[in-house]
Hints:
Blueprint: E1 4-7, E2 20-23, E3 26-29, H1 47-64, H2 85-92, H3 97-113, H4 128-137, H5 140-154, H6 172-176, H7 189-200, E4 206-210, H8 213-217, H9 225-231, E5 235-237, H10 242-255, H11 265-280, E6 285-288, E7 307-308, H12 310-329
Parallel strand pairs: 4-5, 4-6, 6-7
Antiparallel strand pairs: 1-2, 2-3
Helix pairs in contact: 1-2, 3-12, 4-5, 7-9, 7-12, 10-11
Amino acid sequence: xxxxxxxxxxxxxxxxxxxxxxxxxxxxxxxxxxxxxxxxxxxxxxxxxxxxxxxxxxxxxxxxxxxxxxxxxxxxxxxxxxxxxxxxxxxxxxxxxxxxxxxxxxxxxxxxxxxxxxxxxxxxxxxxxxxxxxxxxxxxxxxxxxxxxxxxxxxxxxxxxxxxxxxxxxxxxxxxxxxxxxxxxxxxxxxxxxxxxxxxxxxxxxxxxxxxxxxxxxxxxxxxxxxxxxxxxxxxxxxxxxxxxxxxxxxxxxxxxxxxxxxxxxxxxxxxxxxxxxxxxxxxxxxxxxxxxxxxxxxxxxxxxxxxxxxxxxxxxxxxxxxxxxxxxxx
Length: 331
Protein backbone atom coordinates (compact mmCIF):
# COMPACT_ATOMS: atom_id res chain seq x y z
CA UNK A 1 0.00 0.00 0.00
CA UNK A 2 1.31 3.44 -0.92
CA UNK A 3 2.23 5.75 1.92
CA UNK A 4 -0.39 8.21 3.09
CA UNK A 5 0.38 11.43 4.90
CA UNK A 6 -2.27 13.19 6.96
CA UNK A 7 -1.75 16.84 7.84
CA UNK A 8 -3.45 20.01 9.02
CA UNK A 9 -2.89 23.70 8.47
CA UNK A 10 -0.76 25.47 11.09
CA UNK A 11 -2.53 25.97 14.39
CA UNK A 12 -5.30 23.46 13.71
CA UNK A 13 -5.72 20.17 15.54
CA UNK A 14 -8.58 17.73 15.97
CA UNK A 15 -8.82 14.29 17.59
CA UNK A 16 -11.16 13.08 14.84
CA UNK A 17 -10.27 15.02 11.70
CA UNK A 18 -7.36 15.43 9.34
CA UNK A 19 -7.72 18.41 7.05
CA UNK A 20 -5.75 16.84 4.23
CA UNK A 21 -4.42 13.49 3.11
CA UNK A 22 -1.62 13.10 0.58
CA UNK A 23 -1.75 9.86 -1.40
CA UNK A 24 0.11 9.02 -4.61
CA UNK A 25 1.01 12.66 -5.15
CA UNK A 26 -2.56 13.95 -4.80
CA UNK A 27 -3.88 16.05 -1.93
CA UNK A 28 -7.38 15.24 -0.67
CA UNK A 29 -8.89 17.85 1.63
CA UNK A 30 -11.77 17.61 4.06
CA UNK A 31 -14.82 19.82 3.73
CA UNK A 32 -14.84 23.43 4.85
CA UNK A 33 -17.53 25.91 5.85
CA UNK A 34 -17.24 29.66 6.18
CA UNK A 35 -16.27 29.97 9.82
CA UNK A 36 -13.82 32.15 11.69
CA UNK A 37 -10.69 30.06 12.30
CA UNK A 38 -10.39 31.40 15.87
CA UNK A 39 -13.97 31.28 17.13
CA UNK A 40 -15.53 28.57 14.97
CA UNK A 41 -18.54 30.83 14.32
CA UNK A 42 -19.75 31.77 10.85
CA UNK A 43 -17.83 34.79 9.64
CA UNK A 44 -21.00 36.38 8.29
CA UNK A 45 -24.45 35.63 6.93
CA UNK A 46 -23.13 36.82 3.57
CA UNK A 47 -22.27 33.93 1.22
CA UNK A 48 -19.41 35.85 -0.39
CA UNK A 49 -17.72 36.35 2.98
CA UNK A 50 -18.24 32.69 3.85
CA UNK A 51 -16.73 31.68 0.51
CA UNK A 52 -13.68 33.87 1.11
CA UNK A 53 -13.22 32.21 4.50
CA UNK A 54 -13.43 28.74 2.95
CA UNK A 55 -10.90 29.63 0.27
CA UNK A 56 -8.57 31.06 2.90
CA UNK A 57 -8.62 27.82 4.90
CA UNK A 58 -8.21 25.69 1.78
CA UNK A 59 -5.31 27.81 0.61
CA UNK A 60 -3.63 27.42 4.00
CA UNK A 61 -3.92 23.65 4.16
CA UNK A 62 -2.95 23.20 0.51
CA UNK A 63 0.12 25.35 1.08
CA UNK A 64 1.03 23.15 4.03
CA UNK A 65 0.77 20.17 1.67
CA UNK A 66 3.02 21.82 -0.90
CA UNK A 67 0.17 22.62 -3.25
CA UNK A 68 -2.18 25.55 -3.90
CA UNK A 69 -5.56 26.70 -5.14
CA UNK A 70 -4.22 26.95 -8.69
CA UNK A 71 -3.62 23.18 -8.77
CA UNK A 72 -7.14 22.08 -7.80
CA UNK A 73 -8.47 19.30 -10.04
CA UNK A 74 -11.94 18.94 -8.54
CA UNK A 75 -13.97 20.83 -5.97
CA UNK A 76 -17.47 19.99 -4.75
CA UNK A 77 -19.50 22.98 -3.57
CA UNK A 78 -22.72 22.62 -1.59
CA UNK A 79 -25.18 25.50 -1.21
CA UNK A 80 -28.32 25.53 0.91
CA UNK A 81 -29.83 28.18 -1.36
CA UNK A 82 -29.30 28.17 -5.13
CA UNK A 83 -29.91 31.92 -5.17
CA UNK A 84 -26.47 32.27 -3.55
CA UNK A 85 -24.70 30.75 -6.54
CA UNK A 86 -23.78 33.98 -8.34
CA UNK A 87 -22.26 35.60 -5.25
CA UNK A 88 -20.34 32.43 -4.41
CA UNK A 89 -19.16 31.97 -7.98
CA UNK A 90 -17.91 35.55 -8.24
CA UNK A 91 -15.52 34.80 -5.38
CA UNK A 92 -14.56 31.29 -6.43
CA UNK A 93 -13.80 31.83 -10.08
CA UNK A 94 -10.34 32.98 -11.08
CA UNK A 95 -10.81 35.91 -13.47
CA UNK A 96 -8.01 34.86 -15.77
CA UNK A 97 -7.87 37.10 -18.82
CA UNK A 98 -6.69 34.33 -21.15
CA UNK A 99 -9.69 32.17 -20.25
CA UNK A 100 -12.01 35.16 -20.57
CA UNK A 101 -10.87 35.89 -24.12
CA UNK A 102 -11.03 32.23 -25.13
CA UNK A 103 -14.53 31.76 -23.72
CA UNK A 104 -16.02 34.95 -25.17
CA UNK A 105 -14.49 34.45 -28.62
CA UNK A 106 -15.77 30.89 -28.83
CA UNK A 107 -19.19 31.87 -27.53
CA UNK A 108 -19.50 34.37 -30.40
CA UNK A 109 -18.26 31.76 -32.88
CA UNK A 110 -20.78 29.16 -31.70
CA UNK A 111 -23.65 31.64 -31.92
CA UNK A 112 -22.73 32.67 -35.45
CA UNK A 113 -21.36 29.45 -36.94
CA UNK A 114 -23.07 26.66 -35.00
CA UNK A 115 -22.82 24.75 -31.73
CA UNK A 116 -19.88 22.62 -32.85
CA UNK A 117 -17.84 25.50 -34.24
CA UNK A 118 -14.77 26.81 -32.46
CA UNK A 119 -12.29 29.58 -33.20
CA UNK A 120 -8.94 28.74 -34.84
CA UNK A 121 -6.60 30.37 -32.34
CA UNK A 122 -3.00 30.41 -31.22
CA UNK A 123 -2.76 31.53 -27.60
CA UNK A 124 0.26 32.86 -25.75
CA UNK A 125 -0.20 33.69 -22.07
CA UNK A 126 2.43 35.97 -20.54
CA UNK A 127 3.53 36.00 -16.90
CA UNK A 128 1.53 38.78 -15.20
CA UNK A 129 4.05 39.18 -12.39
CA UNK A 130 6.87 39.70 -14.88
CA UNK A 131 4.82 42.30 -16.75
CA UNK A 132 3.94 44.19 -13.55
CA UNK A 133 7.59 44.28 -12.49
CA UNK A 134 8.74 45.69 -15.84
CA UNK A 135 5.90 48.22 -15.90
CA UNK A 136 6.58 49.36 -12.34
CA UNK A 137 10.22 50.01 -13.25
CA UNK A 138 9.23 51.72 -16.49
CA UNK A 139 11.33 49.22 -18.41
CA UNK A 140 9.20 49.00 -21.53
CA UNK A 141 11.95 47.46 -23.66
CA UNK A 142 12.02 44.42 -21.38
CA UNK A 143 8.23 44.45 -21.24
CA UNK A 144 8.10 44.29 -25.04
CA UNK A 145 10.48 41.33 -25.12
CA UNK A 146 7.80 39.28 -23.34
CA UNK A 147 5.72 39.49 -26.53
CA UNK A 148 8.25 39.86 -29.34
CA UNK A 149 9.27 36.23 -29.69
CA UNK A 150 5.76 34.71 -29.70
CA UNK A 151 4.48 37.40 -32.08
CA UNK A 152 7.32 36.78 -34.51
CA UNK A 153 6.82 33.04 -34.38
CA UNK A 154 3.08 33.36 -35.05
CA UNK A 155 2.94 36.19 -37.58
CA UNK A 156 3.41 33.93 -40.61
CA UNK A 157 0.66 31.57 -39.47
CA UNK A 158 -2.16 33.96 -38.54
CA UNK A 159 -4.32 36.63 -40.16
CA UNK A 160 -4.27 39.05 -37.24
CA UNK A 161 -2.85 39.60 -33.76
CA UNK A 162 -4.60 40.76 -30.60
CA UNK A 163 -2.83 41.73 -27.38
CA UNK A 164 -5.25 40.75 -24.64
CA UNK A 165 -4.45 43.34 -21.97
CA UNK A 166 -4.76 47.11 -21.81
CA UNK A 167 -1.35 47.67 -20.24
CA UNK A 168 0.43 45.56 -22.84
CA UNK A 169 -0.74 47.94 -25.57
CA UNK A 170 1.82 50.36 -24.16
CA UNK A 171 4.42 48.45 -26.19
CA UNK A 172 2.36 47.95 -29.35
CA UNK A 173 4.49 50.38 -31.36
CA UNK A 174 7.69 48.68 -30.19
CA UNK A 175 6.30 45.37 -31.44
CA UNK A 176 5.01 46.59 -34.77
CA UNK A 177 7.75 49.14 -35.59
CA UNK A 178 10.39 46.45 -35.16
CA UNK A 179 13.01 46.02 -37.94
CA UNK A 180 11.19 42.79 -38.80
CA UNK A 181 7.58 43.62 -37.83
CA UNK A 182 4.66 41.20 -38.11
CA UNK A 183 3.00 41.24 -41.53
CA UNK A 184 -0.51 41.09 -40.10
CA UNK A 185 -2.69 43.73 -38.45
CA UNK A 186 -2.94 44.41 -34.73
CA UNK A 187 -6.48 44.54 -33.36
CA UNK A 188 -6.00 47.31 -30.81
CA UNK A 189 -8.19 47.17 -27.74
CA UNK A 190 -8.81 50.93 -27.85
CA UNK A 191 -10.06 50.72 -31.44
CA UNK A 192 -12.58 48.05 -30.46
CA UNK A 193 -13.68 50.01 -27.40
CA UNK A 194 -14.22 53.31 -29.21
CA UNK A 195 -16.16 51.50 -31.96
CA UNK A 196 -18.37 49.83 -29.35
CA UNK A 197 -19.09 53.06 -27.50
CA UNK A 198 -19.71 55.05 -30.69
CA UNK A 199 -22.12 52.44 -32.06
CA UNK A 200 -24.01 51.80 -28.83
CA UNK A 201 -23.81 55.18 -27.09
CA UNK A 202 -23.48 57.76 -29.90
CA UNK A 203 -24.10 60.75 -27.62
CA UNK A 204 -21.51 59.72 -25.03
CA UNK A 205 -18.45 61.98 -24.90
CA UNK A 206 -17.27 62.07 -21.28
CA UNK A 207 -16.06 58.77 -19.82
CA UNK A 208 -14.41 57.86 -16.52
CA UNK A 209 -11.47 55.46 -16.28
CA UNK A 210 -10.34 53.39 -13.30
CA UNK A 211 -7.30 51.16 -13.53
CA UNK A 212 -3.56 50.97 -12.84
CA UNK A 213 -1.85 54.35 -12.61
CA UNK A 214 0.11 53.84 -15.81
CA UNK A 215 -3.13 53.29 -17.75
CA UNK A 216 -4.82 56.34 -16.26
CA UNK A 217 -1.97 58.85 -16.49
CA UNK A 218 -0.08 58.05 -19.67
CA UNK A 219 -2.08 60.25 -22.04
CA UNK A 220 1.10 61.64 -23.65
CA UNK A 221 1.79 58.39 -25.48
CA UNK A 222 -0.14 58.77 -28.76
CA UNK A 223 -0.41 55.02 -29.29
CA UNK A 224 -1.59 54.11 -25.82
CA UNK A 225 -5.07 53.69 -24.46
CA UNK A 226 -6.11 57.14 -23.20
CA UNK A 227 -4.62 59.14 -26.07
CA UNK A 228 -6.33 56.97 -28.67
CA UNK A 229 -9.70 57.47 -26.99
CA UNK A 230 -9.08 61.20 -26.74
CA UNK A 231 -8.29 61.39 -30.45
CA UNK A 232 -11.61 59.67 -31.10
CA UNK A 233 -13.34 62.61 -29.41
CA UNK A 234 -13.84 61.29 -25.89
CA UNK A 235 -12.98 63.23 -22.75
CA UNK A 236 -11.41 60.81 -20.28
CA UNK A 237 -11.86 61.50 -16.56
CA UNK A 238 -9.62 59.89 -13.95
CA UNK A 239 -9.53 60.31 -10.16
CA UNK A 240 -8.88 63.97 -9.40
CA UNK A 241 -6.28 63.99 -6.63
CA UNK A 242 -2.85 62.30 -6.45
CA UNK A 243 -4.02 60.55 -3.29
CA UNK A 244 -7.04 59.05 -5.05
CA UNK A 245 -4.89 57.95 -7.99
CA UNK A 246 -2.43 56.24 -5.66
CA UNK A 247 -5.22 54.52 -3.74
CA UNK A 248 -6.80 53.18 -6.94
CA UNK A 249 -3.38 52.02 -8.13
CA UNK A 250 -2.72 50.29 -4.81
CA UNK A 251 -6.06 48.52 -4.97
CA UNK A 252 -5.37 47.39 -8.52
CA UNK A 253 -1.85 46.05 -8.00
CA UNK A 254 -2.02 44.81 -4.42
CA UNK A 255 -5.49 43.26 -4.41
CA UNK A 256 -7.41 43.16 -7.70
CA UNK A 257 -4.49 41.70 -9.66
CA UNK A 258 -4.34 38.80 -7.20
CA UNK A 259 -7.96 37.80 -7.79
CA UNK A 260 -11.35 38.61 -6.32
CA UNK A 261 -10.72 36.61 -3.14
CA UNK A 262 -7.91 39.05 -2.26
CA UNK A 263 -10.09 42.16 -2.50
CA UNK A 264 -11.15 43.50 0.88
CA UNK A 265 -14.51 45.12 1.56
CA UNK A 266 -12.81 48.45 2.16
CA UNK A 267 -11.05 48.32 -1.21
CA UNK A 268 -14.24 47.38 -3.00
CA UNK A 269 -15.98 50.31 -1.31
CA UNK A 270 -13.12 52.56 -2.40
CA UNK A 271 -13.64 51.60 -6.06
CA UNK A 272 -17.38 52.25 -5.78
CA UNK A 273 -16.68 55.64 -4.21
CA UNK A 274 -14.18 56.55 -6.94
CA UNK A 275 -16.66 55.58 -9.64
CA UNK A 276 -19.33 57.74 -8.04
CA UNK A 277 -16.91 60.68 -7.88
CA UNK A 278 -16.30 60.35 -11.62
CA UNK A 279 -20.04 60.26 -12.24
CA UNK A 280 -20.51 63.41 -10.13
CA UNK A 281 -17.97 65.12 -12.40
CA UNK A 282 -20.04 64.24 -15.44
CA UNK A 283 -18.85 60.80 -16.52
CA UNK A 284 -21.51 59.19 -18.72
CA UNK A 285 -19.83 55.79 -18.50
CA UNK A 286 -16.98 54.10 -16.65
CA UNK A 287 -14.17 52.15 -18.32
CA UNK A 288 -12.81 49.34 -16.17
CA UNK A 289 -9.10 49.46 -16.90
CA UNK A 290 -8.55 45.87 -15.83
CA UNK A 291 -10.37 42.65 -16.60
CA UNK A 292 -10.45 41.69 -12.93
CA UNK A 293 -12.04 44.99 -11.92
CA UNK A 294 -15.31 43.80 -13.41
CA UNK A 295 -15.55 41.31 -10.54
CA UNK A 296 -15.18 44.12 -7.99
CA UNK A 297 -17.14 47.05 -9.40
CA UNK A 298 -20.56 45.91 -10.56
CA UNK A 299 -23.29 47.53 -12.61
CA UNK A 300 -25.63 47.84 -9.64
CA UNK A 301 -22.97 49.94 -7.89
CA UNK A 302 -23.35 52.77 -10.42
CA UNK A 303 -27.02 52.61 -11.38
CA UNK A 304 -27.77 53.41 -15.01
CA UNK A 305 -24.26 54.58 -15.86
CA UNK A 306 -22.80 51.88 -18.16
CA UNK A 307 -19.65 50.04 -17.18
CA UNK A 308 -17.35 49.19 -20.08
CA UNK A 309 -15.11 46.14 -19.82
CA UNK A 310 -12.56 46.63 -22.62
CA UNK A 311 -11.31 43.04 -22.56
CA UNK A 312 -14.80 41.60 -22.98
CA UNK A 313 -15.59 44.08 -25.77
CA UNK A 314 -12.24 43.33 -27.43
CA UNK A 315 -12.87 39.59 -27.29
CA UNK A 316 -16.37 39.96 -28.71
CA UNK A 317 -15.10 42.01 -31.66
CA UNK A 318 -12.37 39.43 -32.28
CA UNK A 319 -14.99 36.69 -32.32
CA UNK A 320 -17.01 38.60 -34.92
CA UNK A 321 -13.92 39.18 -37.07
CA UNK A 322 -12.99 35.48 -36.90
CA UNK A 323 -16.51 34.51 -37.97
CA UNK A 324 -16.36 36.84 -40.95
CA UNK A 325 -13.11 35.23 -42.04
CA UNK A 326 -14.48 31.72 -41.61
CA UNK A 327 -17.60 32.58 -43.60
CA UNK A 328 -15.47 34.00 -46.42
CA UNK A 329 -13.49 30.76 -46.70
CA UNK A 330 -16.41 28.35 -46.37
CA UNK A 331 -17.31 26.36 -49.52
